[in-house]
Amino acid sequence: MVAAFRHMMALDTRPDLIITGGDLAMDIAENTFERSKLEWDMFTKVLRDEVSATVPIHHTLGNHDIFGRNKKKSKASGSEPYYGKRWFLDSFGYTSTYRSFDQGGWHFVILDSIDLLPDGDEYVCRLGAEQFAWLERDLAATTLPTVISSHAPIVSIGNFYDAPDDAWFKSMPDLRVAFKRMHTDCRELDALFRKHRHVKLCLNGHLHLLATATYNGLTYISEGAVSGDKWKGSKRQTPEGYGIIDLFDDGTFQHQYMTYGWKATK
Ligand SMILES: [Zn+2]
């Protein structure tokens, strides 16, 4: 992470803002309080040490950023004040896991893809009624060209190359997309985006696979990950890296994927 942020800060054109795609510190969802605290502290220290205070950072919530999601492994009771998504919120001073802001003539929306099922470690990638209604209001309130960040892809063809490692799933002869891998509300979101043509670009993490799809004039970019395949090298053909996006005044954009020189030792 240090190498990635040093590389980013040394670019000829320094970024005007950074959006992280979630799964920030591995792994808050399946580790004890002590280990999770160590990882959150390391993550925030790296940001403080390596990223200029003048560059705003906006974090997207990932499924691995939710403390105690696996209650057994994390030894969580569920009554801790920092349980669930709370610790993520408190770490960055947020009041909601989804929010929006304007910068440089563009509108940015950060979504929460992780709809937790009651009392379990399972989740479905979708907004849920409350967040969906908020997004409807948010998009109706601006005409600025808009970028949306979600942890899970709203749409990604990467899913067809990287199915979950699950025997039942693999036994299926058809090419399914698991509900933990992509937004199950992608059709509702597409209908909403068609009403708001100022939405230009959707970005996601989660898959660690670089893949671009265009549908109904909207571009969906699934970014690679700073960790590649969780620090074990490339994930399939996507090396460790981050996306650089130039946003132009006319609502167009350019994207490039940047590796940063760090290599896994094995
Ligand atoms: Zn994830």
CATH class: Alpha Beta
Q: Portion of residues in helices?
A: 10-25%
Strand order of the largest sheet: 3-4-7-8-10-9
Q: Low-confidence spans: pLDDT under 50, at least 5 residues? A: none
Strand count: 12
Q: Which CATH architecture?
A: 4-Layer Sandwich
How would the blueprint of this fold be written?
Layout lengths: L1 H8 L8 E3 L12 H18 L6 E3 L11 H4 L11 H7 L6 E5 L2 E5 L3 E3 L6 E3 L3 H12 L5 E5 L16 H4 L15 H10 L3 E6 L6 E5 L2 E5 L19 E6 L5 E6 L8
Parallel strand pairs: 1-2, 4-7, 7-8, 8-10
Antiparallel strand pairs: 3-4, 5-6, 9-10, 11-12
Bound molecules: zinc ion.
Protein described:
The protein has a six-stranded mixed sheet, covered by helices on one side. A two-stranded parallel sheet has the order 1-2. It contains seven helices and twelve strands. It has a single domain (2-258), classed as Metallo-dependent phosphatases (Purple Acid Phosphatase, chain A, domain 2), CATH 3.60.21.10. It is of the alpha/beta class. The chain starts with a helix and ends in an 8-residue tail after the last strand. The protein has helices at residues 2-9, 33-50, 71-74, 86-92, 129-140, 167-170, 186-195, and strands spanning 18-20, 57-59, 99-103, 106-110, 114-116, 123-125, 146-150, 199-204, 211-215, 218-222, 242-247, 253-258. The structure holds zinc ion.
In a nutshell, what does this entry contain?
By secondary structure, the chain is of the alpha/beta class. The protein has seven helices and twelve strands. The longest helix has 18 residues.
